[in-house]
Specification:
Layout (H helix, E strand, L loop, with lengths): L1 H30 L4 H21 L5 H23 L12 H12 L1 H8 L7 H37 L5 H6 L3 H20 L7 H28 L8 H22 L10 H13 L1 H18 L3 H25 L4 H23 L6 H14 L10 H5 L2 H15 L5 H9 L11 H11 L2 E2 L4 H9 L3 H12 L9 E6 L9 E7 L5 E9 L2 E5 L12 H9 L13 E3 L2 E3 L5
Parallel strand pairs: 1-2
Antiparallel strand pairs: 2-3, 3-4, 4-5, 6-7
Protein name: DUF4153 domain-containing protein
Keywords: Membrane, Transmembrane, Transmembrane helix
Organism: Fertoeibacter niger
Length: 576
């Protein structure tokens, strides 16, 4: 009992130390006494170190867990800081989720290996399997307990407040106290969960996952059987499709892993489940290969971006799992052991790829910027299709590509490229200082159809505030690729039941998205109303849509709808 109480006390103290350290670190960061990258590195190190110590303490004694956690934290934090050098400031690093995802994998994958290394050996699959799932279950259970404790604290505070006692409220108002309570509770919960390892174990979850294996097998088989009938074009061509396929591959691999368990003695044994596990393992390469092909089609059409590189990395890893699983089954006896060892190999591969993602060897922004520049230079990307906004978000490599484009734009005959670089992107547009100046410039800039509808235009615009005028004018000055304003107004009698004419103001915001505003006069005042598509799909091509209105190619036509009137209320069937 003394040993148990000492372990609980040590874990509670470790949790308190984690919470207090993170609070103090937050105070230091808020005061800005550290350079950005030093603050990033210190924050990353502290988060990984304390998280890893708490996750490994129990299977390992606290000193050994701390030593292993420090090594993992040092490598992960160092690589994250290295990756931040791609950007002028560290905020740019988190404009895309891939670096944070790679950092998380670097911080978590080594933990079961460190635990196994202290026991039977770092490649011992039963230990790796048990500890991987054990860390997940212990952490989840401990955080649930933390949530329950906080719920009880707030409930207790509310109850005592009924009789005028505000002690709890005053305590948690002290900035460091919530951090200490959370840390102590988490450490204590983890200690208790480790003590009850036979009760709070991953085996319940693993057994439940096995129940899903035949269902996923049936879905996967139906999908594969439908491919020849539906054709590949229905399934390919976008990252969302690839993401769905990769998610299914991950689910299938997880279910196969849960079915074969740590050893043959604990794996599925019945003929039905054995065949289902083999069948799902054999099918695993199909969604992985289709995902890889979908990504390749997208890259071939539009080139590399960080998103596509991240998806390609995931597809290659999924293919690795798929090939290992399928070959293991095809080789016959011993297929479970081959899958288990393949899991170890692929975990190490995932660790290596995650580390490379944060190094210059796999600089997604640099690869993407070079590829987009090359595609423009060899004519595969037209000036109108050049994604200047994306380059602006790709840190220093994107800035270097933009500098190269600006050098090209300075050459004779490159006026279209110069206009594209000048008028697109997130750069702030200079606006007049006074409200009257903004409205005057908006009237002068906003293309109008029909051109004679200026009285209606002026009446409608006069009904809105200066901030709205500034917003519309800013969109107008984010010009189309051909240099025309990024806005247009179409005036017409959209609502015959209202007096006067209405208008639709269509504009393109700085990110290139279309914005529609319906301007009407109702109840004696000018109002903004939403613009909805009868088909359910809004136009996406900003340049084409705005250009069509500006050129007068868009006409006012009756809506193809009929209504009924019940109890004085008009009713229609919703078009979508």
């Amino acid at each position: 009992m003394d040993q148990i109480m000492r372990q609980r006390g040590a874990m509670a103290l470790l949790g308190a130390l984690a919470g207090g350290s993170l609070y103090l670190l937050g105070e230091v960061l808020e005061q800005g006494v550290l350079p950005d990258r030093a603050a990033l590195g210190l924050t990353a190190f502290a988060a990984v170190f304390f998280g890893a110590v708490l996750a490994m303490a129990g299977p390992l004694n606290i000193p050994r867990a701390a030593l292993g956690a420090a090594s993992v934290a040092l490598v992960a934090a160092g690589l994250l800081v290295l990756a931040s050098l791609r950007f002028d400031d560290v905020d740019g690093l988190f404009g895309h989720p891939a670096p944070a995802f790679a950092f998380t994998l670097l911080a978590s994958i080594p933990l079961p290996f460190l635990i196994a290394a202290a026991g039977p050996g770092w490649r011992d699959y039963p230990t790796l399997f048990s500890e991987s799932w054990g860390i997940v279950v212990r952490s989840a259970a401990a955080w649930v307990f933390v949530a329950v404790v906080w719920a009880l604290i707030f409930l207790s505070d509310a109850l005592l407040a009924l009789v005028g006692i505000t002690l709890i409220d005053r305590l948690i108002d002290i900035d460091i106290v919530p951090f200490l309570i959370t840390g102590i509770t988490l450490g204590l919960a983890l200690a208790v969960v480790v003590e009850l390892g036979d009760v709070v174990s991953p085996y319940l979850i693993l057994r439940l996952l096995r129940l899903l294996l035949p269902v996923v097998l049936a879905v996967m088989a139906l999908f594969i059987l439908a491919l020849p009938v539906q054709g590949l074009s229905r399934f390919l061509g976008g990252l969302s499709v690839a993401a769905t396929l990769l998610a299914m591959a991950v689910a299938a691999a997880t279910l196969v892993t849960s079915a074969i368990d740590r050893t043959a003695a604990e794996a599925v044994a019945g003929p039905l489940m054995l065949r289902a596990t083999q069948g799902l393992a054999l099918m695993l390469p199909v969604p992985a290969a289709l995902a890889a092909y979908a990504i390749w089609l997208r890259v071939d059409q539009h080139g590399w971006t960080p998103d596509r590189l991240f998806a390609a990395k995931a597809a290659v890893l999924a293919l690795g799992y798929g090939v290992i699983y399928a070959l293991a089954v095809l080789r016959g006896a011993g297929w479970m052991d081959r899958i288990r060892q393949g899991n170890v190999t692929m975990a190490l591969a995932l660790l290596v790829v995650s580390a490379l993602w944060l190094t210059p060897l796999l600089n997604a922004e640099a690869i993407s910027a070079r590829d987009q520049l090359a595609r423009f230079e060899d004519g595969r990307v037209a000036v109108a299709d050049l994604d200047v906004t994306a380059l602006e978000n790709w840190g220093r490599p994107g800035a270097a590509a933009l500098d190269a484009l600006r050098a090209t734009a300075a050459e004779p005959g490159q006026g279209a490229l110069a206009a594209r670089l000048e008028n697109r992107g997130f750069a702030a547009v200079a606006l007049p200082e006074t409200a009257a100046g903004v409205l005057t410039k908006l009237r002068a800039t906003l293309p109008l159809q029909p051109p004679t509808a200026t009285p209606t235009r002026d009446r409608l615009l006069d009904g809105f505030s200066e901030s709205e005028h500034r917003y519309w004018l800013g969109n107008c000055l984010n010009r189309l690729p051909d240099g025309r304003p990024g806005c247009a107004m179409l005036v017409g009698d959209f609502w015959p039941g209202l007096e006067g004419e209405e208008a639709v103001l269509i504009s393109s915001d700085p990110s290139g998205y279309l914005v529609f505003d319906g301007l009407v006069t109702a109840d004696g005042r000018v109002q903004r109303r939403g613009v909805a598509p009868l088909s359910g799909n809004m136009p996406l091509d900003a340049a084409g849509a705005i250009g069509a209105v500006q050129s007068g190619a868009v006409a006012l036509t009756p809506a193809p709808l009929n209504q009924i009137t019940l109890d004085g209320q008009p009713l229609i069937i919703a078009p979508y």
